[in-house]
Design a protein that fits this description.
Number of domains: 3
Largest sheet: 3 strands, antiparallel
Shape: elongated
Strand order of the largest sheet: 1-2-3
Distance between the termini: 34 Å
Number of strands: 5
Helix content: 25-40%
Low-confidence stretches: none
């Protein structure tokens, strides 16, 4: 998936469309005209659109390395191995903490690059839920002239569709 593009789905937890779109509007149009009918979304059901955010090693490193946690682990090691009198030996400034986080992230990035590791997944941002409203147009179907009242069918397309109706 391409960073910054838009996609759509019929499920807000499992994104089932492999298509990408330049705009939110294009993704929504596809969800309404193609995805909802293909997946049998009924009147009042939902479709979703969201913007693709490619996951990178930098995203992962920033999310797992917290200098405070590393420093706490160092203090725990001191406590376990040297004693509680030395736990306070590690005092750092805000700048030193930020430096540690940057260095840890850089180490992970270098390691991943050296080993050819790059995530292929993505997250979604700007997710929106839209209600799928079925077209109200109906037609009489003359399957049995003696049936009263006559059988009717409802157009399968979205209420805002353009062009011809689609009948069951």
């Amino acid at each position: 998936m391409t960073d910054g593009k838009w996609t759509c789905s019929t499920n807000d937890e499992r994104w089932d469309c492999g298509e990408e779109f330049d705009t939110r509007e294009d993704a929504l149009a596809f969800a309404i005209s193609e995805l909802a009918p293909d997946y049998g979304i009924e009147d009042g059901g939902s479709v979703f659109v969201g913007q693709i955010n490619k996951v990178t090693i930098d995203n992962i490193a920033a999310g797992i390395f917290d200098a405070d946690s590393v420093i706490d682990q160092m203090a725990c090691w001191l406590y376990d191995n040297v004693g509680e009198d030395f736990v306070d030996d590690i005092k750092v400034s805000k700048e030193q903490s930020e430096d540690l986080e940057e260095r840890l992230a850089a180490t992970v990035r270098e390691w991943a690059t050296a080993n050819g590791i790059e995530p292929t997944c993505f997250t979604l941002e700007n997710v929106e839920r839209h209600t799928w409203e079925q077209c109200d147009e109906t037609r009489e179907v003359d399957t049995d002239p003696s049936s009263e009242p006559p059988h009717t069918e409802r157009c399968l397309r979205h209420s805002e569709h353009e062009g011809a109706h689609e009948w069951p």
